[in-house]
Each structure stands twice: as structure tokens, then as C-alpha cells.
Amino acid sequence: MASPGSGFWSFGSEDGSGDPDNPGTARAWCQVAQKFTGGIGNKLCALLYGDTEKPAEGGGSQTPRAATRKAACACDHKPCSCSKADVNYAFLHATDLLPACDGERPTLAFLQDVMNILLQYVVKSFDRSTKVIDFHYPNELLQEYNWELADQPQNLEEILMHCQTTLKYAIKTGHPRYFNQLSTGLDMVGLAADWLTSTANTNMFTYEIAPVFVLLEYVTLKKMREIIGWPGGSGDGIFSPGGAISNMYAMMIARFKMFPEVKEKGMAAVPRLIAFTSEHSHFSLKKGAAALGIGTDSVILIKCDERGKMIPSDLERRILEAKQKGFVPFLVSATAGTTVYGAFDPLLAVADICKKYKIWMHVDAAWGGGLLMSRKHKWKLSGVERANSVTWNPHKMMGVPLQCSALLVREEGLMQNCNQMHASYLFQQDKHYDLSYDTGDKALQCGRHVDVFKLWLMWRAKGTTGFEAHVDKCLELAEYLYNIIKNREGYEMVFDGKPQHTNVCFWYIPPSLRTLEDNEERMSRLSKVAPVIKARMMEYGTTMVSYQPLGDKVNFFRMVISNPAATHQDIDFLIEEIERLGQDL
Question: Rounded distance, CA 216 to CA 460, Å?
């Protein structure tokens, strides 16, 4: 594939204008829009209100019922700034917006009010005085609102209200005190990129309908392969709908590499295949095996040490067992950043075993791949350069808005050969441009969302050093939490030693359990503590952190940090909140 070149494509190494909870003025919200959208909102205001005249009030009303805008007129000046009539959303429907005749002004008014709703939500997401969640039970939400779909259209006033209601009950995943999932935070440049992507509304299968996005995918995947350590960024890759699909791609390509006839003849034409992964690995490996007809029984779970790392000697033992039974080992999936413990498998030792037995080595770095951006922490993935394929989710540790997952493959052309079907209505061979940029035939999907632009634009805005600072800060916050609670009364660590990732796993021990003997009764009572505290967190709306059991360990908290908005004060708050909510248990 020819290189797109350098220059534009290449990578570089609450002043609030009014209270967002109140309607505010149009001028104030234009200023907020300009602040958060780089002037796009201000240009919309100019289109709506004219270049020189902006009304003093009535702009970003929180209650759409009261919102009015100037209607389109019959003059020749576009966009016009004259005032002919007021627009009342109660009398407007989607059919009055573009491409309707004279739909320009109501469209701009409607989109500006949608933008106002979004900007208010963005500002609130970073306000620590607001709730992370306004929790209601499913039956309450179902009864409180009519969510059913109807035959007749609703007016735009009702549509705006639906937007507000939806965000009212949404989880503020960008809130500095939201620690519930691996994907947290709300990046402003990534958000802007997502808006642009939706506006462009195209598909990724051919260069002819997504020229810039296809080139950006080429550039970005090449850069990621360089960071992994493949010479010159050689190889292949694709952005997929999440790490589970990326892992399934890897399993599918590994199978094709060993038995290419499986593509036409199916599993009946190949011997019993066996995949190996750690007992702490992601469940998607078994899901992929089920989807591909390999079967979950053909995924062998390898023992881990007390820190959650795969034990290489057990991997080799299980490979030999499978071969003795006449089965064919075809894939080892090592994990770089397990979901619960944040453990990094010993990739160099795994690579040696895969080389010895000629087995495809995949690294699931969905969670840990972001550490490759950090000079301080990338050593934890030593050996990843020896992998045949790597899953890397920038929507996790790197804070790119969901979804953004990449599957990187060391051998160029293998993914294309595995998946291509030569659909002649899309991939004509006599097009007038370089057909290597028609990447859709190497994907399982036909329709494929543009996921690359968020990552590319954020990378341009931050540089590699910006992502490095992001990663380093999050890991420093995790170490800060660990240092506070490791010897604090009422806390027990799930495993000894400083965590390798931002995963901090611990039990909170209420006063009533601290003097009990370590027996079955204590474990039974302790297993109920984390779920109750989590439920109270959600009902108060103050913070969110995940919990789970693992193996013989009863429910414990798994704290993860990927949001650069979090601070030491937020970690202190979390500890105090756990103690406040759990002291009476």
C-alpha cells in the first residue's frame, strides 16, 4: 500500500457564562458553545441571530417548551438575519427541518437547542457538586415516562424534551468520581470528533465514500504497529466494534493461517483445534470460540499466580497434553492488563513457548495497550513485539470516546485473504484509484462505523506526550489510593504488592466484622458488604466503583482509573464515602 505521505496526515511526537442549570441568555450560551466547540457554536449563533445582532435572552432555554426562534423568510440573502416570525416547536415536526423547503432556519434553531442541551450536560459532567447518577429502578423509569413508539410523529418540542430526559437519567461517565468501568472520562476533542463523524455519516468499506477516514485509518494503525515494535509499522489491522470482536478476529485469522481450507469447507475439514488463555482472561475468548464453531470446551484456561499472571510452565504442560490427545493447538491469547487484577502476562516467556510449538501468539491488550504510550510503564508489555496479533482499545486507557478498538496483525495480507468475498458491487477491480485503500473486504462487517477519527484528532491535539501524561497520571492516582488503604484500618488488599495497572482490588471491612475470626461466616457476611455499599452509592448518586467475586474470593471492590479529570481529592472522597456508607453494616 502506498504511503499517504507526511505533513497534514502525520502525528506529532468553568468560566461559565451563566449557570448551566438556568435558562441563561443566548449570548452566554453562544460563548459556552464557542468555548467547547472551537467556534462552531458561535458560527451557528451568527447564522441564527445575524452577525451583529444577538438577542439578550431566550437562547439556551432548559425547557424547550419556551424556546422560539426566527423563522425562515423569503429574502434572497442566505443565511438571512431579518425577523419575519417566531418559530414555535410545538407546531414543528421533523418534516419541517432540512431538506424541507425553507428548512434552513428551523434546522439551525433546532440543532442549536440540541447543542445547548449537550453543552449543559458536558459542563455538569465535570461539576463535582452534581450527581454521577440519578438512579431509578427500571420499573420506575418505565412507569414515569412513556417510552413506547407510536405511528404518528411527535413535535420538535417533545423531541427536545426526550433529549433532556435521556441525559437526565444517563450516567455521567465523564464525572471525576465515576470509576465503575475501564472506559471513563469525556475528552472534548474526542467529543467534537464524534460529532463530526456522525455529521459525515459515511461507511468505511471503500475509499470512494470515505477518502479521508480511510487514509486516517491507514496512518493511525501504522503508527500503533510502530509503537508495538513491528519494524516500520509493517502489518495490517482494522478498527472493530470493541475488544471482543478484535479478539475474535485474531482467533479467526490464526485458524485461517494454520488451516486456510476452513474458509470454504468449515470446521468439519479440520482437526480439533485448541486455544489457550489464562483463567483471568476476558470472557470474549470463549465467546469467540463459540461463534466460530470451535467450541468453548476447546478453550483451555491456564493457571495464574497470586497476582493474576499466566504461569508459563502450566501453559506448556497443557499444550503437551492437548497434542498427546491428538488435538491441534492453534492459538495462545496472553493478556496485557486483565480486567479485574490489571495483570500483565509474561509475554516474553509466552512468546518463547509459542515459537517452540509453532502456535499463533495473540496479545489481548485491550486494557493495557495504552501503557505503550508511556516511557515509564511500557516495559510491562515487553515481548508484545513478538506477537502475531494484538488487540488494543484506545477507548479504555487512552480516554477516546466509545467505541475505538483496534486489531493489529503482524503479517500483511492475511486478514484480507481470510475474510474477502470479492463483492463486485463494492470492490470493482477497474476503479481509477489504488484499490489497496478499499479496506472493507478484510472486515467481517459490511457497514462499518468510522471509529478512527476520534483517536486521530485526539492524537493531533495531545501528541504522543499528551497520552503519556494521561496514562502516567492515572497510574499515579492508583498508586496513591493503594498507599492510603494498604495499611488503613478497615481495608484488606486482595493481593499483595503495588498494582501494575490502575486496578486496585480491596475489601472494605465494616467495624462489625473486624474482630471476627477468618471463617466461613465472616466470608459470607463480607460478601454482602460491597454490593450494599455500591447500591447506596448509586442511590445517593455520589460515586460509582465496581465489585465482583473472583475464584474463591468473595465480593471485593475493583477500583480502576482512566479519567484524567480525577484528582487526589476524588480518591480521598471515594475512601470517605465507602466508610460513610458501610460503617453500619
Answer: 11
Distance CA 151, CA 155 (A): 13
- Residue 2: C-alpha distances to residues 17, 219, 433, 437 (Å): 49, 11, 11, 9
244 and 344, same domain (yes or no) = yes
Which of 388, 420, 450 is the C-terminal boundary of a domain?
450
- Classify residue 434: in a domain, yes or no: yes
Which residues contact residue 342 at a Cβ distance below 8 angstroms, ignoring those fewer than 6 apart? 308, 367, 368, 499, 500, 501, 502, 503, 560
Q: 109 is in which domain, residue-wise?
A: 89-172
Domain assignment present for residue 183? The answer is no
CATH number of domain containing 282: 3.40.640.10
- Same domain membership, residue 160 and residue 287: no
CB 24 within 8 A of CB 8: no
Query: Measuring CA to CA, which residue among 464, 499, 465 is closest to residue 481?
Result: 499
Do 256 and 401 lie in one domain? The reply is yes
Cα separation, 411 vs 521, whole angstroms: 54
Co-location of 381 and 295 in the same domain: yes
364 assigned to some structural domain: yes
Per-residue model confidence as pLDDT tens for the chain (585 residues): 444 444 444 444 434 333 434 444 444 445 544 544 444 445 445 544 444 333 333 333 344 343 444 444 444 555 554 433 478 999 999 999 999 999 999 999 999 999 999 999 999 999 999 999 999 999 999 999 999 999 999 999 999 999 999 999 999 999 999 999 999 999 999 999 999 999 999 999 999 999 999 999 999 999 999 999 999 999 999 999 999 999 999 999 999 999 999 999 999 999 999 999 999 999 999 999 999 999 999 999 999 999 999 999 999 999 999 999 999 999 999 999 999 999 999 999 999 999 999 999 999 999 999 999 999 999 999 999 999 999 999 999 999 999 999 999 999 999 999 999 988 888 899 889 999 898 998 999 999 999 999 999 999 999 999 999 999 999 999 999 999 999 999 999 999 999 999 999 999 999 999 999 999 999 999 999 999 999 999 999 999 999 999 999 999 999 999 999 999 999 999 999 999 999 999
